[in-house]
Protein backbone atom coordinates (compact mmCIF):
# COMPACT_ATOMS: atom_id res chain seq x y z
CA UNK A 1 0.00 0.00 0.00
CA UNK A 2 2.86 2.38 0.80
CA UNK A 3 4.37 2.10 -2.68
CA UNK A 4 0.99 2.49 -4.37
CA UNK A 5 0.30 5.59 -2.32
CA UNK A 6 3.80 6.85 -3.05
CA UNK A 7 3.56 6.63 -6.81
CA UNK A 8 0.01 7.98 -6.82
CA UNK A 9 1.09 10.96 -4.76
CA UNK A 10 4.25 11.46 -6.79
CA UNK A 11 2.16 11.95 -9.91
CA UNK A 12 0.68 15.03 -8.25
CA UNK A 13 4.01 16.84 -8.34
CA UNK A 14 4.91 17.10 -4.67
CA UNK A 15 6.05 20.36 -3.19
CA UNK A 16 9.75 20.17 -2.30
CA UNK A 17 11.40 21.88 0.64
CA UNK A 18 15.17 21.43 0.90
CA UNK A 19 16.62 22.75 4.16
CA UNK A 20 20.40 23.01 4.27
CA UNK A 21 22.38 23.81 7.39
CA UNK A 22 25.89 25.20 6.94
CA UNK A 23 28.79 23.27 8.54
CA UNK A 24 26.49 21.14 10.69
CA UNK A 25 28.35 18.00 11.67
CA UNK A 26 27.10 14.43 11.45
CA UNK A 27 26.45 14.03 15.17
CA UNK A 28 24.79 17.34 16.13
CA UNK A 29 21.15 16.17 16.07
CA UNK A 30 19.45 14.23 18.82
CA UNK A 31 18.40 11.57 16.33
CA UNK A 32 22.08 11.10 15.45
CA UNK A 33 23.08 10.61 19.07
CA UNK A 34 23.66 14.13 20.42
CA UNK A 35 22.60 14.56 24.03
CA UNK A 36 23.50 18.23 24.49
CA UNK A 37 21.88 20.05 21.57
CA UNK A 38 18.08 20.24 21.41
CA UNK A 39 16.46 19.35 18.09
CA UNK A 40 12.93 18.08 18.84
CA UNK A 41 11.42 19.05 15.47
CA UNK A 42 14.17 17.39 13.44
CA UNK A 43 14.09 14.34 15.69
CA UNK A 44 10.36 14.09 15.05
CA UNK A 45 10.94 14.30 11.30
CA UNK A 46 13.31 11.36 11.64
CA UNK A 47 10.71 9.37 13.57
CA UNK A 48 8.01 10.17 11.02
CA UNK A 49 10.32 9.80 8.02
CA UNK A 50 13.63 8.27 7.05
CA UNK A 51 17.07 8.89 8.50
CA UNK A 52 20.11 8.17 6.34
CA UNK A 53 23.38 7.14 7.96
CA UNK A 54 25.76 7.12 4.96
CA UNK A 55 24.78 10.23 3.04
CA UNK A 56 27.78 12.04 1.63
CA UNK A 57 28.65 15.58 0.65
CA UNK A 58 30.42 15.79 -2.69
CA UNK A 59 33.16 17.86 -1.03
CA UNK A 60 34.32 18.82 2.48
CA UNK A 61 33.62 22.54 1.94
CA UNK A 62 30.74 24.69 0.83
CA UNK A 63 30.78 25.81 -2.81
CA UNK A 64 31.53 22.45 -4.47
CA UNK A 65 28.72 20.83 -2.46
CA UNK A 66 26.30 23.45 -3.75
CA UNK A 67 27.55 23.07 -7.31
CA UNK A 68 26.88 19.32 -7.13
CA UNK A 69 23.43 19.92 -5.64
CA UNK A 70 22.45 22.35 -8.37
CA UNK A 71 23.74 20.28 -11.30
CA UNK A 72 23.75 16.59 -10.32
CA UNK A 73 27.44 16.44 -11.24
CA UNK A 74 30.73 15.83 -9.47
CA UNK A 75 32.37 19.12 -8.45
CA UNK A 76 35.51 17.98 -10.30
CA UNK A 77 33.55 17.81 -13.55
CA UNK A 78 32.22 21.33 -12.99
CA UNK A 79 35.59 22.73 -11.98
CA UNK A 80 34.49 24.11 -8.61
CA UNK A 81 36.46 22.07 -6.08
CA UNK A 82 37.05 24.59 -3.29
CA UNK A 83 34.99 27.31 -1.67
CA UNK A 84 34.75 30.46 -3.78
CA UNK A 85 36.40 33.57 -2.41
CA UNK A 86 34.55 36.90 -2.53
CA UNK A 87 36.64 38.16 -5.47
CA UNK A 88 36.64 34.85 -7.35
CA UNK A 89 36.26 35.04 -11.11
CA UNK A 90 34.89 31.49 -11.18
CA UNK A 91 31.16 30.94 -10.70
CA UNK A 92 28.50 28.41 -11.61
CA UNK A 93 28.06 28.91 -15.33
CA UNK A 94 24.57 29.71 -16.58
CA UNK A 95 24.92 27.01 -19.24
CA UNK A 96 24.00 24.40 -16.61
CA UNK A 97 20.36 23.54 -16.10
CA UNK A 98 20.17 23.93 -12.35
CA UNK A 99 17.82 22.09 -10.06
CA UNK A 100 15.71 25.24 -9.85
CA UNK A 101 15.52 25.50 -13.64
CA UNK A 102 14.67 21.81 -13.94
CA UNK A 103 11.74 22.18 -11.57
CA UNK A 104 10.66 25.52 -12.96
CA UNK A 105 10.27 23.85 -16.37
CA UNK A 106 7.86 21.42 -14.67
CA UNK A 107 5.64 24.25 -13.47
CA UNK A 108 7.18 24.77 -10.05
CA UNK A 109 7.47 28.14 -8.35
CA UNK A 110 11.05 28.33 -7.11
CA UNK A 111 12.61 30.22 -4.23
CA UNK A 112 15.85 30.42 -2.29
CA UNK A 113 16.06 31.83 1.21
CA UNK A 114 19.63 32.55 2.24
CA UNK A 115 23.07 31.36 1.24
CA UNK A 116 24.08 30.79 -2.40
CA UNK A 117 27.93 30.85 -2.48
CA UNK A 118 28.29 29.75 -6.09
CA UNK A 119 29.87 32.98 -7.30
CA UNK A 120 32.27 35.72 -6.44
CA UNK A 121 30.60 39.09 -5.85
CA UNK A 122 30.92 42.23 -7.95
CA UNK A 123 30.58 44.33 -4.80
CA UNK A 124 33.70 42.60 -3.46
CA UNK A 125 35.67 43.13 -6.67
CA UNK A 126 34.85 39.97 -8.66
CA UNK A 127 34.86 40.57 -12.45
CA UNK A 128 31.37 39.07 -12.79
CA UNK A 129 28.82 37.13 -10.78
CA UNK A 130 25.88 34.79 -11.28
CA UNK A 131 23.44 34.97 -8.39
CA UNK A 132 20.36 32.77 -7.86
CA UNK A 133 18.04 34.88 -10.03
CA UNK A 134 20.22 33.90 -13.02
CA UNK A 135 19.87 30.22 -12.19
CA UNK A 136 16.12 29.71 -12.15
CA UNK A 137 14.98 31.06 -8.79
CA UNK A 138 11.80 33.12 -9.03
CA UNK A 139 12.21 34.53 -5.54
CA UNK A 140 15.60 35.32 -3.98
CA UNK A 141 15.19 36.22 -0.32
CA UNK A 142 17.87 37.46 2.12
CA UNK A 143 20.61 35.99 -0.05
CA UNK A 144 24.15 37.34 0.06
CA UNK A 145 25.66 39.76 -2.45
CA UNK A 146 28.99 40.06 -0.63
CA UNK A 147 31.37 37.66 1.07
CA UNK A 148 29.92 35.59 3.89
CA UNK A 149 33.05 34.61 5.83
CA UNK A 150 32.70 35.64 9.52
CA UNK A 151 29.35 37.12 8.52
CA UNK A 152 27.08 38.78 11.02
CA UNK A 153 24.00 36.95 12.33
CA UNK A 154 22.33 40.05 13.80
CA UNK A 155 21.06 42.97 11.72
CA UNK A 156 22.63 44.83 9.93
CA UNK A 157 24.13 42.04 7.83
CA UNK A 158 27.61 42.39 6.35
CA UNK A 159 26.87 39.87 3.59
CA UNK A 160 24.03 41.99 2.18
CA UNK A 161 23.85 45.57 3.42
CA UNK A 162 20.72 46.24 1.39
CA UNK A 163 18.54 43.93 3.52
CA UNK A 164 16.12 45.91 5.63
CA UNK A 165 15.03 44.79 9.08
CA UNK A 166 11.49 43.34 9.18
CA UNK A 167 11.07 41.37 12.40
CA UNK A 168 9.79 43.12 15.55
CA UNK A 169 12.04 43.93 18.48
CA UNK A 170 15.34 45.78 18.73
CA UNK A 171 17.43 42.93 17.25
CA UNK A 172 16.79 40.79 14.19
CA UNK A 173 18.50 37.41 13.97
CA UNK A 174 19.13 36.17 10.43
CA UNK A 175 18.00 32.59 11.12
CA UNK A 176 14.69 33.87 12.49
CA UNK A 177 14.37 36.08 9.43
CA UNK A 178 15.08 33.16 7.12
CA UNK A 179 12.47 31.04 8.87
CA UNK A 180 9.88 33.80 8.46
CA UNK A 181 10.77 34.32 4.80
CA UNK A 182 10.36 30.58 4.23
CA UNK A 183 6.90 30.63 5.80
CA UNK A 184 5.94 33.60 3.65
CA UNK A 185 7.09 31.82 0.50
CA UNK A 186 4.95 28.78 1.36
CA UNK A 187 1.90 30.93 2.06
CA UNK A 188 2.28 32.81 -1.24
CA UNK A 189 2.87 29.73 -3.35
CA UNK A 190 0.96 26.94 -1.64
CA UNK A 191 -1.67 26.67 -4.39
CA UNK A 192 0.85 25.49 -7.00
CA UNK A 193 3.81 23.13 -6.88
CA UNK A 194 6.76 24.89 -5.27
CA UNK A 195 10.44 24.28 -4.63
CA UNK A 196 11.86 26.05 -1.61
CA UNK A 197 15.60 26.00 -0.92
CA UNK A 198 16.00 27.19 2.67
CA UNK A 199 19.76 27.61 2.80
CA UNK A 200 20.82 28.63 6.30
CA UNK A 201 23.91 30.67 7.09
CA UNK A 202 24.06 28.94 10.50
CA UNK A 203 25.99 27.22 11.98
CA UNK A 204 28.98 28.60 10.07
CA UNK A 205 31.62 30.10 12.35
CA UNK A 206 31.95 32.41 14.06
CA UNK A 207 28.91 30.83 15.74
CA UNK A 208 26.70 33.37 17.45
CA UNK A 209 23.31 32.60 18.96
CA UNK A 210 20.49 34.63 20.45
CA UNK A 211 21.43 35.63 24.02
CA UNK A 212 18.46 33.97 25.74
CA UNK A 213 19.06 30.65 24.05
CA UNK A 214 22.80 30.92 24.63
CA UNK A 215 22.20 31.40 28.36
CA UNK A 216 19.92 28.36 28.36
CA UNK A 217 22.64 26.16 26.91
CA UNK A 218 25.39 27.72 29.04
CA UNK A 219 23.46 26.57 32.11
CA UNK A 220 23.24 22.96 30.96
CA UNK A 221 25.46 20.27 32.42
CA UNK A 222 28.76 19.84 30.54
CA UNK A 223 28.30 23.05 28.56
CA UNK A 224 31.46 24.24 26.85
CA UNK A 225 32.89 27.64 27.67
CA UNK A 226 35.34 30.19 26.34
CA UNK A 227 36.06 33.82 27.25
CA UNK A 228 35.04 36.67 24.95
CA UNK A 229 37.77 37.54 22.49
CA UNK A 230 39.78 40.75 22.31
CA UNK A 231 37.41 41.93 19.56
CA UNK A 232 34.55 41.88 22.10
CA UNK A 233 36.15 42.76 25.47
CA UNK A 234 32.85 43.93 26.95
CA UNK A 235 31.15 40.61 26.10
CA UNK A 236 28.33 42.32 24.22
CA UNK A 237 25.95 39.43 23.41
CA UNK A 238 24.96 41.03 20.09
CA UNK A 239 28.51 41.52 18.83
CA UNK A 240 30.61 38.73 17.37
CA UNK A 241 32.90 36.58 19.53
CA UNK A 242 31.12 36.81 22.91
CA UNK A 243 31.76 34.33 25.72
CA UNK A 244 31.19 30.73 24.69
CA UNK A 245 31.47 31.30 20.95
CA UNK A 246 34.83 29.55 20.76
CA UNK A 247 34.02 26.67 23.11
CA UNK A 248 35.60 23.52 21.69
CA UNK A 249 32.73 21.19 22.58
CA UNK A 250 29.05 21.46 23.58
CA UNK A 251 29.30 24.97 22.19
CA UNK A 252 26.34 26.98 23.56
CA UNK A 253 26.27 29.31 20.55
CA UNK A 254 26.22 26.44 18.06
CA UNK A 255 23.46 24.80 20.11
CA UNK A 256 21.48 28.05 20.20
CA UNK A 257 21.77 28.54 16.45
CA UNK A 258 20.76 24.95 15.80
CA UNK A 259 17.75 25.32 18.09
CA UNK A 260 16.61 28.31 16.01
CA UNK A 261 16.95 26.23 12.84
CA UNK A 262 14.94 23.50 14.56
CA UNK A 263 12.25 26.00 15.62
CA UNK A 264 11.93 26.99 11.96
CA UNK A 265 11.46 23.36 10.93
CA UNK A 266 8.68 23.04 13.52
CA UNK A 267 6.98 26.17 12.18
CA UNK A 268 7.24 24.96 8.56
CA UNK A 269 5.72 21.58 9.39
CA UNK A 270 2.93 23.27 11.36
CA UNK A 271 2.13 25.56 8.42
CA UNK A 272 2.13 22.67 5.95
CA UNK A 273 -0.42 20.87 8.13
CA UNK A 274 -2.49 24.04 8.54
CA UNK A 275 -2.62 24.51 4.75
CA UNK A 276 -3.27 20.82 4.09
CA UNK A 277 0.02 20.49 2.20
CA UNK A 278 1.88 18.04 4.44
CA UNK A 279 0.72 14.92 2.58
CA UNK A 280 2.05 16.30 -0.70
CA UNK A 281 5.32 17.86 0.43
CA UNK A 282 8.73 16.23 0.47
CA UNK A 283 10.90 17.88 3.11
CA UNK A 284 14.63 17.15 3.23
CA UNK A 285 17.07 18.33 5.89
CA UNK A 286 20.84 17.97 5.63
CA UNK A 287 24.19 19.79 5.83
CA UNK A 288 26.81 20.81 3.28
CA UNK A 289 29.93 19.43 5.02
CA UNK A 290 31.23 18.35 8.39
CA UNK A 291 31.42 20.53 11.46
CA UNK A 292 34.49 22.58 12.30
CA UNK A 293 36.59 20.64 14.78
CA UNK A 294 37.67 23.87 16.49
CA UNK A 295 34.20 24.17 18.02
CA UNK A 296 32.67 20.69 17.85
CA UNK A 297 33.33 17.04 17.20
CA UNK A 298 31.96 14.80 14.49
CA UNK A 299 32.56 11.69 16.61
CA UNK A 300 32.30 8.79 16.12
CA UNK A 301 33.59 9.93 12.73
CA UNK A 302 37.13 11.19 12.21
CA UNK A 303 38.00 14.72 11.14
CA UNK A 304 35.70 17.49 10.05
CA UNK A 305 35.22 20.30 7.60
CA UNK A 306 38.05 20.53 5.02
CA UNK A 307 39.12 16.86 5.35
CA UNK A 308 38.18 13.81 3.30
CA UNK A 309 37.83 11.69 6.41
CA UNK A 310 34.23 10.68 7.14
CA UNK A 311 33.73 13.58 9.56
CA UNK A 312 34.31 16.01 6.71
CA UNK A 313 31.94 14.49 4.17
CA UNK A 314 29.34 12.26 5.86
CA UNK A 315 26.22 14.27 6.68
CA UNK A 316 22.97 13.99 8.60
CA UNK A 317 20.13 13.51 6.11
CA UNK A 318 16.42 13.23 6.89
CA UNK A 319 13.62 12.82 4.35
CA UNK A 320 9.99 13.34 5.41
CA UNK A 321 6.88 12.87 3.31
CA UNK A 322 3.88 11.54 5.29
CA UNK A 323 2.27 8.51 3.69
CA UNK A 324 4.94 8.28 1.01
CA UNK A 325 8.20 7.70 2.87
CA UNK A 326 8.43 4.79 5.25
CA UNK A 327 8.16 6.11 8.81
CA UNK A 328 10.79 5.63 11.51
CA UNK A 329 13.09 4.04 8.96
CA UNK A 330 16.88 4.05 8.73
CA UNK A 331 18.68 3.77 5.41
CA UNK A 332 22.31 2.64 5.58
CA UNK A 333 23.01 2.65 1.84
CA UNK A 334 25.70 5.11 0.69
CA UNK A 335 24.37 8.06 -1.29
CA UNK A 336 25.72 11.49 -2.20
CA UNK A 337 24.27 14.93 -2.66
CA UNK A 338 24.68 14.80 -6.46
CA UNK A 339 21.95 12.10 -6.27
CA UNK A 340 19.38 14.69 -5.19
CA UNK A 341 19.05 16.21 -8.67
CA UNK A 342 18.15 12.93 -10.46
CA UNK A 343 15.92 11.93 -7.53
CA UNK A 344 13.84 15.09 -7.76
CA UNK A 345 13.87 14.82 -11.54
CA UNK A 346 12.38 11.33 -11.24
CA UNK A 347 9.75 12.49 -8.77
CA UNK A 348 8.59 15.41 -10.88
CA UNK A 349 8.87 13.97 -14.39
CA UNK A 350 11.60 16.35 -15.51
CA UNK A 351 13.63 15.69 -18.65
CA UNK A 352 17.25 14.74 -18.11
CA UNK A 353 18.93 15.11 -21.51
CA UNK A 354 20.36 18.59 -20.97
CA UNK A 355 23.61 17.64 -19.18
CA UNK A 356 25.32 14.43 -18.03
CA UNK A 357 24.34 13.40 -14.52
CA UNK A 358 26.75 11.70 -12.16
CA UNK A 359 24.12 10.88 -9.55
CA UNK A 360 21.31 8.33 -9.55
CA UNK A 361 17.72 8.47 -8.30
CA UNK A 362 17.16 6.99 -4.87
CA UNK A 363 13.37 7.19 -5.08
CA UNK A 364 13.05 3.39 -4.53
CA UNK A 365 14.54 3.81 -1.03
CA UNK A 366 11.63 5.95 0.12
CA UNK A 367 9.38 2.90 0.21
CA UNK A 368 12.09 0.39 1.11
CA UNK A 369 15.41 1.52 2.61
CA UNK A 370 16.94 -1.82 1.59
CA UNK A 371 15.90 -1.53 -2.08
CA UNK A 372 18.65 -2.47 -4.51
CA UNK A 373 20.41 0.40 -6.27
CA UNK A 374 23.01 0.05 -9.03
CA UNK A 375 26.47 -0.72 -7.59
CA UNK A 376 28.93 2.17 -7.95
CA UNK A 377 31.93 3.89 -6.46
CA UNK A 378 31.98 7.29 -4.78
CA UNK A 379 34.71 9.80 -5.55
CA UNK A 380 36.07 13.02 -4.09
CA UNK A 381 38.58 15.46 -5.55
CA UNK A 382 39.89 18.22 -3.30
CA UNK A 383 43.09 19.80 -4.66
CA UNK A 384 44.57 22.63 -2.60
CA UNK A 385 47.54 24.91 -3.18
CA UNK A 386 48.14 24.93 0.57
CA UNK A 387 46.52 23.23 3.56
CA UNK A 388 43.11 24.51 4.66
CA UNK A 389 43.24 26.60 7.83
CA UNK A 390 41.18 23.90 9.57
CA UNK A 391 43.75 21.25 8.71
CA UNK A 392 42.44 19.76 5.49
CA UNK A 393 45.03 18.67 2.93
CA UNK A 394 45.09 18.37 -0.83
CA UNK A 395 43.70 14.91 -1.55
CA UNK A 396 41.37 12.65 -3.48
CA UNK A 397 39.31 9.76 -2.25
CA UNK A 398 37.29 6.76 -3.40
CA UNK A 399 34.77 4.60 -1.57
CA UNK A 400 34.08 1.18 -3.12
CA UNK A 401 31.77 -0.96 -1.01
CA UNK A 402 33.16 -0.99 2.51
CA UNK A 403 36.62 0.12 1.37
CA UNK A 404 37.81 3.72 1.30
CA UNK A 405 41.10 5.01 -0.01
CA UNK A 406 42.41 8.52 0.61
CA UNK A 407 45.25 9.60 -1.68
CA UNK A 408 47.09 12.69 -0.47
CA UNK A 409 48.32 14.85 -3.33
CA UNK A 410 50.83 16.82 -1.24
CA UNK A 411 53.13 13.96 -0.22
CA UNK A 412 51.73 11.03 -2.20
CA UNK A 413 50.94 8.78 0.74
CA UNK A 414 47.74 6.75 0.85
CA UNK A 415 45.46 5.49 3.60
CA UNK A 416 43.00 2.58 3.41
CA UNK A 417 40.04 1.94 5.69
CA UNK A 418 37.27 -0.63 6.00
CA UNK A 419 34.25 1.49 6.90
CA UNK A 420 32.07 -1.47 7.86
CA UNK A 421 34.55 -2.50 10.55
CA UNK A 422 36.09 0.88 11.27
CA UNK A 423 33.73 3.81 10.51
CA UNK A 424 35.94 6.07 12.64
CA UNK A 425 38.92 5.44 10.34
CA UNK A 426 41.28 4.63 13.19
CA UNK A 427 43.19 1.76 11.55
CA UNK A 428 45.03 2.40 8.29
CA UNK A 429 45.14 -0.90 6.39
CA UNK A 430 47.21 0.28 3.42
CA UNK A 431 50.30 -1.69 4.41
CA UNK A 432 48.26 -4.84 4.96
CA UNK A 433 46.42 -4.72 1.62
CA UNK A 434 48.77 -3.19 -0.97
CA UNK A 435 46.97 -4.78 -3.93
CA UNK A 436 43.66 -3.28 -2.81
CA UNK A 437 45.36 0.10 -2.48
CA UNK A 438 46.72 -0.21 -6.01
CA UNK A 439 43.35 -1.20 -7.45
CA UNK A 440 41.46 1.61 -5.77
CA UNK A 441 44.13 4.13 -6.66
CA UNK A 442 43.93 3.10 -10.32
CA UNK A 443 40.14 3.51 -10.24
CA UNK A 444 40.51 6.94 -8.65
CA UNK A 445 43.06 8.06 -11.24
CA UNK A 446 40.88 6.79 -14.11
CA UNK A 447 37.91 8.69 -12.72
CA UNK A 448 40.00 11.87 -12.44
CA UNK A 449 40.88 11.54 -16.11
CA UNK A 450 37.28 10.83 -17.12
CA UNK A 451 35.92 13.97 -15.43
CA UNK A 452 38.99 16.02 -16.41
CA UNK A 453 39.77 16.83 -12.81
CA UNK A 454 42.28 19.62 -12.42
CA UNK A 455 45.09 19.68 -9.85
UniProtKB/TrEMBL annotation:
SUPFAM superfamilies from the UniProt entry: Alkaline phosphatase-like
Record flagged with keyword Methyltransferase: no
> Looking at the keywords, is Signal present?
yes
PROSITE patterns the UniProt entry points to: SULFATASE_2 (PS00149)
Coiled-coil region list: none
Q: Which UniProt keywords apply?
A: Calcium, Hydrolase, Metal-binding, Signal
Name of a matching Pfam family: Sulfatase
The record, for Gene3D superfamilies, names: 3.30.1120.10, Alkaline Phosphatase, subunit A (3.40.720.10)
Endpoints of the signal sequence? none
Region annotated Disordered sits at 219-251
Give cofactor(s), names only.
Ca(2+)
The chain positions of domain Sulfatase N-terminal read 14-349
Locate the compositionally biased regions of type Polar residues. 220-234
Per the similarity annotation, which family is this?
Belongs to the sulfatase family.
This protein is called what? Sulfatase
Species assigned in the record: Niabella pedocola
Lineage, highest ranks first: Bacteria, Pseudomonadati, Bacteroidota, Chitinophagia, Chitinophagales
Amino acid sequence: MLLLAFYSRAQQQPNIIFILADDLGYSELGCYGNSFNETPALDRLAREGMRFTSFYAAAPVCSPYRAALMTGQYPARIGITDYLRPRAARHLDTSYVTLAELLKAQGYRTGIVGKWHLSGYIKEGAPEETLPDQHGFDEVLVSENRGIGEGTYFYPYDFNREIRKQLPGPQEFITDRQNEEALGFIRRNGKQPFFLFLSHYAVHTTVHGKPGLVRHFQQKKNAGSSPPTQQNPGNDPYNKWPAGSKASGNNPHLAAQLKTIDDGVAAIVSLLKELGLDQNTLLIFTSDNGGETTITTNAPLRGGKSTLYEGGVREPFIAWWPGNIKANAVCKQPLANYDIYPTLMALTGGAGNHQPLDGISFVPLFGNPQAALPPRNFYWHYPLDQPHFLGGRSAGSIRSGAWKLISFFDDGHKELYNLDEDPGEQTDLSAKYPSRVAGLDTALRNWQKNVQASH
